[in-house]
From TrEMBL:
<dbReference type="InterPro" id="IPR001128">
    <property type="entry name" value="Cyt_P450"/>
</dbReference>
<dbReference type="GO" id="GO:0020037">
    <property type="term" value="F:heme binding"/>
</dbReference>
<keyword id="KW-0479">Metal-binding</keyword>
<dbReference type="GO" id="GO:0016705">
    <property type="term" value="F:oxidoreductase activity, acting on paired donors, with incorporation or reduction of molecular oxygen"/>
</dbReference>
<protein>
    <submittedName>
        <fullName>Cytochrome P450</fullName>
    </submittedName>
</protein>
<comment type="similarity">
    <text>Belongs to the cytochrome P450 family.</text>
</comment>
<dbReference type="InterPro" id="IPR050121">
    <property type="entry name" value="Cytochrome_P450_monoxygenase"/>
</dbReference>
<keyword id="KW-0349">Heme</keyword>
<dbReference type="Pfam" id="PF00067">
    <property type="entry name" value="p450"/>
</dbReference>
<dbReference type="GO" id="GO:0005506">
    <property type="term" value="F:iron ion binding"/>
</dbReference>
<keyword id="KW-0408">Iron</keyword>
<dbReference type="GO" id="GO:0004497">
    <property type="term" value="F:monooxygenase activity"/>
</dbReference>
<feature type="binding site" description="axial binding residue">
    <location>
        <position position="410"/>
    </location>
    <ligand>
        <name>heme</name>
    </ligand>
</feature>
<dbReference type="InterPro" id="IPR036396">
    <property type="entry name" value="Cyt_P450_sf"/>
</dbReference>
<dbReference type="InterPro" id="IPR002401">
    <property type="entry name" value="Cyt_P450_E_grp-I"/>
</dbReference>
């Protein structure tokens, strides 16, 4: 029974029908620091700053760390779900990868939207599914055993370069399959060197769109890393073009990604150009190696401080009774330290309303994996590292988003999880993890990713008793 409105005397209770208020995005609260200060915080304190902003402003707030950009962070699961499900012509991602263009050009998956994106994803999918996945999985496991056995013992190492070289080998398998290019050793090393640029602040610049004198100046100042980057990228391109031609002329096509790319045709029936294939291949190396290397570093950084968890993984491995606990450890690691604390941005192409906020054309939405994954409303004791929470429990699609979601959800999630498990299995079954200083490593930016401040510095000490090498 409606209650009368005592103010107007109307017998109908209009409050029950009133639409919730919708505010324009410009009215969302956010950091008021100058842009340069926000950029500095984004680079140096990203996760801490994100958490602070959420405490101050709630699940929706503004950030301003790029000139002229209108950046909004969202971390309410319903908002994130709505973002993932928005029609393809309303939110675009293809123009959100500008700062990565220097690594992989502007024609690959990361720059495509709507039908073109869907078609490219469909065309590439068979190279990571079914039999192709089994081949990649077997190669990732074998390579982990091979590589981890060579990682130095009884000396302090930084895990990152070792993990990164391993993940580059796995993406070689994805891209080239059983036909390794004749110049692979050089090509793999050049790709590694190209990506080292992410350790430099200049990686945030779109210097290729800047006037030439600016690029010359940046090259001349060696400490920017620009000259090192451009020299290695040039060499990597030369070798990659050769590798593409080598395969094209051999006609030896299989179920690997390069074969899929060589089979793709444009609407007019023409094949992809060598440059387009290079862009897609480099997209895979960028998307699929640094991310997983970051996750492996965090995994070892955490386990070196969590001896009971490490011991429980060992016990499970030694028993040979499945990998439920190891899987839970990997899910928990990706919860506490998602390598991309803010997943790929969505740019608003048509106005839309999410969670009582109207976003306008040009606004940029970032869902924060870090904030969602640490939300105390969804995780008890959210800051604690507790793999048990995922024992035989699948992570929620909108409350655990290290791999994003919707139309551009990560293509390599199963491959990445296989890699992390394979490395952890081999390290933990053969070594103890030793650290003099067990203070958690803070996070630092490596391009759009976060890695441990010291690249996970620790010592691998061979296990003395009951040494078992792990095959799976
Ligand atoms: C722990 C490791 C990894 C993490 C955390 C990760 C995370 C992500 C995220 C957050 C996205 C964007 C999704 C979105 O914004 O909704 C993405 C996209 C992508 N990832 Fe991964 N990724 C990982 C490993 C890999 C691997 C191993 C591969 C390749 C085998 C890969 C290939 C891709 C590709 C191609 C895309 C773009 C998909 C598209 O545009 O349709 N990733 N990844």
């Amino acid at each position: 029974m409606p209650t009368p409105d005592t103010m107007t005397g109307c017998p109908v209770d209009h409050s029950a029908m009133r639409q919730p208020e919708v505010i324009p995005s410009t009215e969302l609260p956010g950091s008021t620091l100058p842009l340069i200060a926000q950029l500095w915080k984004y680079r140096t304190l990203r996760t801490v700053w994100l958490s602070q902003l959420r405490t101050e402003h709630g699940h929706r707030f503004r950030m301003n760390f790029r000139p002229k950009a209108k950046i909004y962070l969202i971390s309410d699961p319903d908002d994130v779900k709505a973002m993932f499900l928005a029609p393809r012509d309303v939110l675009h991602t293809g123009n959100g990868s500008d700062i990565l263009e220097k690594f992989f050009g502007g024609t690959g998956l990361a720059f495509l939207d709507e039908e073109a994106h869907l078609a490219r994803r469909k065309a590439l999918m068979p190279s990571i599914k079914g039999e192709a996945f089994k081949r990649i999985e077997a190669a990732a496991i074998a390579r982990a055993k091979h590589d981890v056995a060579k990682w130095p013992r009884e000396e302090i190492i930084s895990v990152h370069p070792h993990a990164h070289r391993y993940t580059i080998e796995v993406i070689r398998e994805v891209v080239f399959g059983r036909v390794t290019p004749s110049s692979w050793d050089d090509l793999g090393e050049e790709i590694f060197q190209v990506m080292e640029f992410n350790n430099h602040l200049a990686t945030v610049l779109m210097f290729e769109r800047a006037p030439r004198p600016v690029t010359w100046l940046l090259r001349a100042i060696r400490s920017t890393g620009v000259d090192h980057f451009l020299r290695h990228r040039e060499r990597a391109d030369e070798l990659l073009f050769e590798a593409i031609e080598e395969r094209r002329s051999s006609g030896d096509l299989g179920d690997d990604m390069l074969s899929m790319l060589l089979r793709i045709t444009h609407d007019d029936g023409s094949a992809l150009s060598t440059r387009e294939i290079r862009d897609e291949v480099m997209t895979m190396f960028v998307a699929g190696t640094e991310t997983t290397a970051s996750a492996i570093c965090w995994a070892l950084e955490y386990l070196s401080r969590e001896p009971e968890v490490a011991q429980r993984v060992r016990a499970e491995l030694d028993e040979g009774a499945g990998d439920a606990y190891l899987t839970a450890v990997v899910y928990e690691l990706l919860r506490v330290r998602p390598p991309l604390p803010m997943i790929i941005l969505r740019k608003v192409m048509k106005p839309l309303e999410i969670g009582g906020v109207r976003y306008e054309v040009g606004d940029e939405l970032f869902a924060s994996a870090h904030l969602l994954n640490h939300d105390p409303n969804h995780y008890d004791d959210a800051e604690a590292f507790r793999p048990e929470r995922f024992l035989d429990v699948k992570p929620g699609a909108n409350t655990w988003i290290p791999f994003g979601g919707g139309a551009i959800r990560c293509l390599g999630d199963r491959i990445a999880i296989t890699e992390i498990k394979a490395v952890l299995s081999n390290v933990l079954s053969t070594c103890e993890l030793r650290r003099e200083d067990t203070t958690p490593e803070r996070t630092r930016s490596r391009g759009v990713l976060i890695v441990p401040e010291n690249d996970a510095r620790l010592e691998l000490v061979p296990r003395t008793a009951d040494l078992k090498l792990v095959e799976n």
